[in-house]
Specification:
single chain; mainly alpha
């Protein structure tokens, strides 16, 4: 039971920190743009952002587990962005720049990494009933 209470306390602290950060950002923007935001607006925006973060983190974990990994990597993040072309393009450019700075090109694999895709072998049978002849 203590674990659940600790989890709830941690979640509340995270939400509180997020609320503070979003409040600071909204205050800065409201000064620059000459508008006023109510505390209810900041609270609603905080809940929206928190929900998006929670959904994204769950999706990333599922993508990683599906690929047989315990750690989320860039492939999972890129898969998450598949429905937002602008974000996907922006992150792809950033990833390419990071790889170039590390001296790796886009297609180089990390040493020791498994190859992706289906194995290609001479004994592979394609389609239904093709092997029965």
């Amino acid at each position: 039971m203590a674990s659940t209470e600790d989890d709830l306390e941690r979640e509340e602290r995270l939400k509180s920190s997020l609320w503070y950060t979003i409040g600071q950002f909204v205050d800065e923007q409201s000064i620059d743009e000459s508008f006023n935001a109510t505390p209810q607006f900041i609270g609603a925006l905080t809940e929206l952002v928190y929900t998006q973060i929670a959904n994204a983190s769950r999706d990333l974990e599922v993508f990683s587990k599906h690929a047989g990994r315990k750690v989320v990597n860039t492939d999972d993040v890129m898969l998450l962005t598949r429905r937002n072309e602008a974000l996907e393009m922006l992150l792809k450019q950033q990833l390419d720049a990071m790889r170039a700075a590390e001296g790796r090109d886009e297609q180089q694999q990390v040493p020791g990494a498994k190859k992706r895709g289906r194995p290609s072998g001479a004994g592979a049978v394609k389609g239904k009933g093709k092997g029965k002849q």
